[in-house]
Design a protein that fits this description.
By secondary structure, the protein is of the alpha+beta class. The chain is built from 7 helices and 7 strands, in the order αβααααβαββββαβ. The strands form 2 sheets. Strands 1, 3, 4, 5 and 6 form a 5-stranded antiparallel beta sheet that branches. The protein has a two-stranded antiparallel ribbon with strand order 2-7. Pfam families: Peptidase_C39_2, PMBR.
């Protein structure tokens, strides 16, 4: 008889709850999720996961394409959250399903996006409804101890950050932007940046000097760092 870890069991229960909420019935089968987490005690911690890109929202063949296309430029927070779930293997939803579900929960608005207080509250509501075994943790930003803080947080979860874009990460314009940090190299002083808005020609994820990302977080008001952990 095969066994599963408590974390795998919790994720299976969450997936069943999501399926039932969408389909009003129990699923016929349940897939045992894989658990991929970095090993503690080494200089490099990273999650090996590709990113969903807000430029691809919504799918062009979506029946409600015209309804949601106007949101594409403003769903970086929803996308960062989706990428975090993907990295933790917490969901079997498609990218479009996650973003469409969280737009009202995050109070994401055309022309504005998602302001940080709404993002925090929206993630809390989403976890309570669909992933009740998990909770949101907000950690104050500390530029002096940025790498140390990331290293500790990444032992449990990738980290969502809210920063101000500029040319150092490939943007011509400056505005608030949510993305994911999915790795850190303490020895080299680097962080692995998984951009929600994957710019053509720039790798995603890409390793940057930690102070580049820290400076951009500081420029945009020193927003907290968001992670998801098991209760």
């Amino acid at each position: 008889m095969s066994t599963v870890s408590w974390e795998q069991y919790s994720q299976m229960v969450s997936n069943v709850n999501i399926f039932k909420a969408k389909n009003k019935r129990n699923p016929n089968t349940v897939t045992i999720p894989e658990i991929t987490k970095p090993k503690p005690g080494i200089a490099v911690l990273e999650y090996s996961c590709s990113n969903w890109n807000q430029r691809n929202f919504p799918k062009s063949n979506s029946v409600d394409y015209s309804k949601y296309k106007k949101y594409s430029a403003y769903v970086c927070g929803n996308t960062a959250f989706a990428n975090l779930l993907k990295c933790l293997k917490m969901t079997n939803w498609t990218y479009d399903e996650i973003v469409k579900t969280t737009i009202p929960l995050f109070n994401t608005r055309v022309g504005i996006g998602t302001v940080p207080p709404d993002f925090t509250y929206g993630v809390q509501k989403t976890l309570a409804k669909y992933y009740p075994d998990y909770r949101l943790v907000t950690t104050p930003f500390d530029r002096k101890n940025f790498i140390k803080t990331l290293y500790e947080l990444l032992k449990k979860s990738p980290v969502i950050v809210n920063l101000e874009t500029d040319k150092t990460i490939g943007y011509n314009n400056r505005y608030g932007h949510y993305s994911l940090v999915s790795g850190v190299d303490k020895d080299k002083g680097l962080v692995k940046f998984l951009d929600s808005n994957h710019i053509p020609g720039i790798p995603a994820p890409k390793w940057y000097k930690a102070d580049v990302i820290a400076r951009l977080i500081e420029m945009h008001g020193k927003r907290p760092l968001w992670t998801i952990v098991k209760k």
